[in-house]
TrEMBL record:
<feature type="compositionally biased region" description="Acidic residues">
    <location>
        <begin position="179"/>
        <end position="191"/>
    </location>
</feature>
<protein>
    <submittedName>
        <fullName>Uncharacterized protein</fullName>
    </submittedName>
</protein>
<keyword id="KW-0732">Signal</keyword>
<feature type="compositionally biased region" description="Basic and acidic residues">
    <location>
        <begin position="192"/>
        <end position="201"/>
    </location>
</feature>
<feature type="region of interest" description="Disordered">
    <location>
        <begin position="168"/>
        <end position="201"/>
    </location>
</feature>
<feature type="signal peptide">
    <location>
        <begin position="1"/>
        <end position="18"/>
    </location>
</feature>
Length: 201
């Protein structure tokens, strides 16, 4: 009877451990919108997570699931700036992209083009939540660092963080040499000049 009681307690302990282990996971719902060089948009579900049912442990990224020995500490996505000034991201699309926006759980990650006063590589800005980055090398990497609930932080390499000093170029700003830019469409030029005039008092 004594051994039977010990056996029951042991079974309950194993069941409790299995239950705790199976709950040791997370899943961040994700929606990805990419824009190709022809300005066509493509949408897809792009979740990220880790599951553990007590027997099989899997890391989930988009439509792919990979068997892993345990919860990964981090995962990296590479962004390659190509010679044509578009980017390639293996996990996102089979062809080069112009831009993307990835809503991942409570985090928003986007890459877009904008002409700045001081030109940056590819005219690209990478924005992660409320922080912006510029390409420093042609190969950049976003590393997701995990905790038990999901993403703890981000580490970005191959890029430099924006200090908020390099802002978007004013369309009404004249070239530094004082000359006006040429245009073949005089009507469009007049329209732009009208937009740039200060309001009459």
């Amino acid at each position: 009877m004594k051994y039977f009681f010990i056996f029951i307690v042991l079974l309950n302990s194993i069941a409790a451990l299995a239950e705790d282990k199976s709950s040791n996971g997370f899943l961040l719902e994700g929606k990805l919108v990419v824009t190709d060089p022809y300005k066509k948009t493509h949408e897809k579900n792009m979740p990220m997570g880790f599951s553990d049912d007590g027997n099989l442990q899997k890391f989930i990224i988009g439509e792919n699931q990979y068997k892993v020995p345990g919860k990964p500490e981090k995962y990296s996505i590479a962004i390659l700036l190509q010679d044509n000034n578009f980017v390639w991201v293996q996990e996102f699309h089979s062809k080069p992209l112009k831009s993307f926006t990835w809503q991942l759980g409570e985090h928003k990650i986007s890459l877009y083009k904008e002409i700045l006063r001081k030109p940056v590589k590819g005219d690209y800005i990478l924005s992660i939540d409320d922080k912006d980055y510029f390409f420093n090398n042609r190969l950049a990497q976003i590393t997701f660092i995990f905790n038990d609930e999901g993403i703890e932080s981000f580490d970005v390499s191959g890029m430099v963080a924006s200090l908020g000093l390099n802002r978007a170029k004013d369309k009404c700003e004249q070239p530094s040499d004082g000359s006006e830019s040429d245009t073949s469409d005089e009507e469009e030029k007049d329209s732009e000049e009208t937009k740039c005039k200060p309001p009459e008092s």
